[in-house]
Specification:
Layout: E1 109-110, E2 117-118, H1 220-224, H2 236-273, H3 282-285, E3 292-295, E4 301-305, E5 312-313, H4 323-333, H5 345-358, H6 368-376, H7 387-403, H8 406-416, E6 423-424, H9 426-434, H10 443-450, H11 465-486, H12 502-514, H13 527-538, H14 543-548, E7 552-555, H15 559-574, E8 583-589, E9 596-600, H16 629-639, E10 646-649, E11 678-681, H17 682-687, H18 691-701, H19 715-721, H20 745-756, E12 760-761, E13 767-771, E14 777-780, E15 787-788, H21 792-802, H22 809-812, E16 825-830, E17 836-842, E18 847-853, H23 865-885, E19 898-904, E20 918-924, E21 937-943, E22 958-964, H24 969-975, H25 978-986, E23 1008-1013, E24 1024-1032, E25 1036-1045, E26 1053-1054, E27 1064-1073, E28 1082-1091, E29 1096-1104
Parallel strand pairs: 3-7, 5-6
Antiparallel strand pairs: 1-2, 3-4, 7-13, 8-9, 8-18, 10-11, 12-15, 13-14, 16-17, 17-18, 19-20, 21-22, 23-24, 24-27, 25-26, 25-28, 28-29
Helix pairs in contact: 4-10, 4-11, 6-7, 6-8, 10-11, 10-12, 11-12, 15-23, 16-18, 16-21, 24-25
Length: 1145
């Protein structure tokens, strides 16, 4: 049978050989089948053997074993004894120092445009030039005499089961027609051949005869018991007439028989032909799968996606297949390939005879064309053994030969055949076994591969090396024989013949013998990236398309940067074992194109203890901490904030949801350092990552869009524009700006990409091109400038703040790990309980995002984004800039609508005359700083009772004072604390601090009432009763009377010892005053009244006393007159207890 009857055996098809058992003398190299008989000369007492699928019959009986005399073996008359001289020149070769130099052949060169080849194999470097030692001649094996029966998995040989039993001697066999896979060429000849003779080509007409063991000469006893036939008549004349008639009748009968046979054959032909598949479908029936390969940006193979139900396969045209491989295949499978019409009549005849004499099918005699027909057009009948199937196969082969060229058939065959180890087709096999291409296969590599298809499971060099190497020697022998017989091996009209001499053959065998095969496994390089690419493919194609279309996937990954990133993660985590940090992830991308240059999904993909196979770069369940703050300020810029906007970093509480009507407990954030920093600009707040200002910024922006305006101006909307899709809940609160939502590293890095790319959004890119196995471009990424999702000026302002090393110095210092040798914008993040560390930063050329933590959310110990993730970020950024740009990082391009303006360093407004220091800040041209009238220091005319701006409605009690221009209620409270007063005093504000009023007072605002009556001039009575009204329409707290000499007293004296807490609502005596010592003096009487709002009003009266002659009188006492009843006061807001009550001057 043909050598490739079973070349497509899969493990699931081994059930048909369950009846096979081991016979005595079993070795993995030669597993006989019990039901097969031995060839002649293998021993009379052993069951006949025939090659199995794996060519297992390798255990011949001794050549000198003689059958008993009573049962002599029949010697066919036309059998030719082996010509041992054929390989006599190989006998006794030893390794010598001065070995005769072999005839040089041209070096193998592929011309992919013409398909022409020139052959010049050179000895393998480092391989000694030796010749084959004398070996025992092995069994005769016919390539076309192997049954089409797939082996069962349990019967496959294993390297560990090889029995080191001595092989018996075998007869010397020579196959002049190159159909016998014998190893006698590697042994000393035993016969008439003489050492040193040249190869002798025997006649092609000499068949190899195989005699059955049971074909024996009749014994004498048997002859005696035979009945004797009648003697012929002696009448010669009469006999001659009968003989003539008999010949005539026999001739007629023969013609009738032949006619019947012809008619039956024609009928059978059409009967079979009508059931055959169309030959035109041959190309379409070819294996519809090609191995899909994932490449890095440099073209290096990262992974081959292998169909678990198929294998690896890459289709290559014939002109990209080594001529050695073509020659080896022809010599091994079908030496008359270029001479027959698709089937070999002589081989079929030989097979019929062998099968008939064996009593069963032991040979198929299939040509390469028949094998292809069986594989592609009769796949459902592949393992059926019947003459009808063989007839169908022959008819199809003939039709294929008629419609296709030999080269087309051979190309299909070499791309279809199975070479073991998941390798379908010669390209996959070349890569699997030798890590090369089919075009570059050498002689020793080609001969090895050509021997595998007969029994890929048997000839597995990784598990059955010795047997596989012996198989290679068989193939080399067949090539040598065919080359000598045909005067080189013809491999096509357009290709040069392949010629082999003895030295090339032996050198190839020795080279393969010394070669160490390295089993290629399916371990992925950069596994998280590969899995990510597969997921992208699966989102566009079904799995069968991916497995079988032979895609070449060109990806954006930079292998050098990927290795550096992986090492940076592992090295940093090794230093953080005491911090309980076990995992990390990295995203590096080109912000201009969105191309992902590196993706580290975990510290170790294969470490289950850290959930290493979870890609933490893609997980959308990690809180970003402060790393999301730049997005909050970006949203504020889109409204009207600037880098100079003043925010009060003071103790504050907020409704958790941001809704003023929220009744839940107030949200009170604190800063990372546990301190409050007073008034800070946006630049300082973001650069130093202060929490309270960020919460105030989000409160200003709004978490969600304002439904009353219909404008998409909320924070969630902006995040979505920047590419963050995971913020989908409806219950987010103000803690969102501190990392209260969940994001992935990839999407957060993608949001920063907008900032690095001048406000233009480019989606992350991982695949640049997909090409099928025919070279057709299935997909190709076309770079774009991106969508302008935010204003370039705003993106520049954020980048300026994040790259300002001086601005972040108060929190991080000037020499932190964030300070790189070049300008880079960067933001860190740390979540509650240290569960997540982040650092994301960029230049216009490179963006790197880093996450450090534990996949199971276990908290780390005392580590932040600066100490945990930032060292990894700094390392990759510097490596990437050096690797990709030669160490020259680009600066951020300044948009034309960004301008410089001078501001007050403290307030961020245009400086007023009271500003203590100034600096330059950048602004969008239409969003400048506040005018100086709105500086933090403001001269204001205010109503003393309400604290509002004075107006005609409240002009009685007014004063001009230096006020603090602040509207933040939390800031106003803080200014009344010790820390707030100290700050105000440091910057020149009066004590008590006066807050600039928000509005003018109106008629309906609370008013103070101070009215003294009976103050005639001069006053002549003593004691003098002070009568009047001291009250307020609202917010009354207390009053007190003071007096001083002169119209502008410098010293005041209390007329009452204590503050009067009850208002005088109607005219009454406020005090009785002994003025005996004030005769002739001008006195100023002052009434001071305080409000519950911590305001104060005063009213002064000037008095002149002219008293009568004084008479002794007792010391006056002041007796306040209380009203008979207390009028209820309207409800008022009680000020903070910490607010100081103005004291007595």
């Amino acid at each position: 049978m043909d050598e490739n009857e079973q070349n497509e055996i899969k493990p699931t098809e081994y059930k048909e050989i369950g009846e096979f058992t081991e016979s005595p003398g079993y070795t993995p190299a030669a597993e006989p089948l019990e039901k097969f008989e031995t060839f002649e000369g293998y021993g009379a007492n052993e069951p006949e053997e025939s090659p199995s699928e794996a060519e297992t019959a390798k255990e011949p009986n001794p050549a000198n074993e003689v059958a008993p005399e009573t049962e002599p073996t029949v010697e066919p008359a036309n059998e030719v004894q082996p010509e041992s001289s054929l390989f006599a020149e190989l006998d006794g070769f030893k390794e010598v120092e001065n070995f005769p130099e072999p005839v040089p052949e041209p070096e193998a060169v592929t011309d992919f445009s013409t398909g022409h080849w020139a052959v010049d194999p050179k000895p393998q470097s480092g391989t000694p030039q030796t010749v084959m030692e004398t070996r025992q001649t092995e069994s005769l094996i016919l390539p076309d005499d192997i049954p089409t029966i797939p082996p069962q998995a349990e019967d496959l040989p294993k390297a560990a089961e090889i029995q080191p039993e001595p092989l018996p001697q075998v007869v010397e066999v020579v196959d002049p027609q190159a159909t016998v896979l014998a190893s006698t060429a590697f042994a000393n000849s035993v016969g008439s051949a003489k050492e040193g003779t040249q190869p002798v080509l025997t006649s092609r007409t000499q068949p190899n005869r195989i005699a059955r063991q049971d074909q024996q000469k009749p014994s004498p006893t048997q002859n005696k018991n035979q009945p004797k036939g009648p003697k012929p008549p002696k009448n010669k004349k009469k006999g001659s007439g009968c003989f003539g008639r008999s010949l005539l009748y026999a001739a007629i009968a023969f013609l009738v028989l032949m006619l019947g046979v012809a008619i039956f054959a024609i009928y059978k032909y059409f009967d079979i032909a009508k059931t055959l598949p169309a030959v035109d479908e041959l190309q379409n029936r070819a294996s519809q799968f090609e191995t899909t390969r994932i490449l890095d940006r440099n073209g290096g193979i990262l992974y081959e996606i292998v169909d678990p139900n198929a294998g690896k396969r890459t289709y290559v045209p014939l002109d990209r297949i080594s001529p050695y491989l073509i020659a080896a295949t022809i010599a091994t499978e079908d030496k008359e390939y270029y001479n027959h019409p698709g089937f070999d009549v002589f081989a079929l005849g030989r097979a019929l005879y062998t099968n008939y004499t064996s009593g069963e099918i032991v040979s198929g005699a299939s040509t390469i064309t028949q094998q292809l027909a069986r594989m592609l057009l009769l796949s459902d009948e592949r393992f059926v053994q019947s003459y009808e199937r063989k007839a169908r196969e022959i008819i199809l082969a003939a039709e294929i030969t008629r419609r296709y060229t030999k080269e087309q058939v051979l190309e299909l065959y070499l791309n279809e055949i199975f070479y073991g180890n998941f390798s379908y087709g010669i390209e996959a096999a070349a890569e699997t076994y030798f890590n090369t291409t089919a075009a570059n296969l050498t002689l020793w590599q080609a001969s090895f591969l050509a021997g595998l298809p007969q029994a890929p499971a048997e000839y597995d060099v990784y598990t059955n090396r010795d047997v596989t190497l012996e198989r290679n020697k068989t193939v080399l022998l067949l090539m040598y024989q065919l080359s000598n017989e045909k005067n080189c091996i013809h491999i096509g009209e357009e290709l040069m013949p392949v010629c082999l001499d003895a030295m090339q053959t032996l050198d190839a065998a020795n080279t393969l013998e010394a070669y160490e095969f390295t089993k290629q496994d399916f371990e992925m390089r950069f596994p998280h990236w590969v899995v990510f690419i597969q997921s992208l493919l699966e989102s566009q194609f079904d799995s069968q398309t991916i497995y079988r279309s032979g895609f070449t996937i060109y990806t954006t990954l930079d292998p050098y940067l990927q290795v550096e990133a992986e090492e940076a993660v592992q090295e940093q985590l090794a230093q953080m074992t005491g911090n309980n940090a076990t995992n990390g992830a990295v995203i590096a991308m080109d912000p201009k194109t969105g191309e992902i240059l590196s993706m580290v999904g975990s510290a170790d993909f294969y470490n289950a203890d850290i959930s290493g196979q979870v890609n933490m770069a893609l997980t959308q369940t990690r809180q970003p901490g402060s790393a999301i703050k730049p997005l909050t300020y970006l949203a504020a810029f889109e409204k009207d904030w600037t880098p100079a906007t003043l925010i009060w970093d003071v103790p504050a509480s907020f409704p958790p949801s941001g809704d003023p009507n929220d009744t839940n407990p107030r949200y009170e954030p604190v800063n990372y350092d546990g301190r409050f920093h007073g008034p800070v600009t946006v630049r300082d707040a973001l650069a130093n990552s202060y929490n309270i200002p960020a919460v105030k910024a989000l409160e200003y922006v709004g978490i969600f869009d304002d439904p009353s305006t219909g404008v998409a101006d909320g924070f969630i909307n902006l995040a979505r524009r920047l590419g963050i899709t995971s913020l989908t809940r409806s219950d987010y609160g103000l803690s969102l700006t501190l990392g209260g939502g969940e994001v992935s590293l990839l999407e957060l890095s993608g949001a920063y990409q907008v900032l690095a790319n001048e406000g233009r959004k480019v989606s992350p890119v991982a695949i640049t091109k997909v090409v099928d196995h025919k070279g057709n471009v299935v997909y190709e990424y076309v770079p774009t400038n991106g969508d302008q999702v935010v204003r370039a000026a705003h993106a520049y302002l954020i980048s300026s703040i994040l790259s300002d090393n001086n601005a972040r110095a108060p929190m991080f210092g000037t020499n932190s790990v964030l300070a790189l040798p070049f300008q880079a914008a960067v933001k860190t993040g740390t979540t509650n309980d240290y569960r997540d560390n982040w650092t994301v930063g960029y230049t216009p050329d490179l963006l790197v995002g880093v996450w450090v933590g534990n996949a199971d959310y276990t908290p780390m110990i005392n580590t932040s984004g600066v100490s945990g993730a930032a060292p990894i970020w700094a390392s990759i950024m510097q490596t990437g800039i050096n690797h990709l740009f030669g160490g020259n990082a680009s600066s951020f391009a300044r948009p034309s609508d960004v301008v410089d303006m001078t501001i007050c360093s403290v307030s961020g407004a245009t400086p007023s005359e009271y500003c203590p220091s100034q600096r330059t800040e950048i602004f969008a041209s239409d969003q400048g700083p506040l005018p100086k009238e709105e500086d933090l220091w403001t001269k204001s005319m205010i109503d003393s009772w309400t604290g509002l701006q004075a107006s005609p409605a409240c002009s009685e009690f007014t004063k001009e004072t230096l006020t603090i221009n602040v509207e933040d209620e939390d800031a106003i409270k803080w200014l009344k604390t010790d820390a707030g007063r100290a700050w105000a005093d440091n910057y020149g504000f009066p004590d008590p601090v006066v807050i600039k009023p928000e509005r003018e007072c109106r008629l309906d605002d609370p008013r103070p009432i101070i009215d003294l009556i009976g103050l005639q001039d001069p006053i002549k009575e003593n004691p003098f009763k002070v009568v009047g009204v001291v009250d307020a329409t609202a917010n009354f707290k207390q009053y007190k009377l003071h007096w001083g000499e002169g119209e502008n007293p410098t010293e005041w004296h209390a007329l009452q010892q204590d503050w009067i807490m009850t208002p005088m609502r109607s005219a009454g005596v406020l005090a009785e005053w002994d003025v005996s010592e004030l005769d002739g003096k001008v006195i100023t009487l002052r009434v001071t009244m305080h409000s519950t709002q911590n305001t104060e009003v005063q009213k002064k009266y000037t008095l002149y006393f002219t008293l009568p002659t004084p008479t002794p009188s007792p010391t006056p006492t002041v007796t306040p007159i209380l009203p008979p009843t207390e009028t209820p006061m309207p409800p008022t807001t009680v000020p903070d207890e910490s607010t100081p009550t103005p004291g007595t001057p």
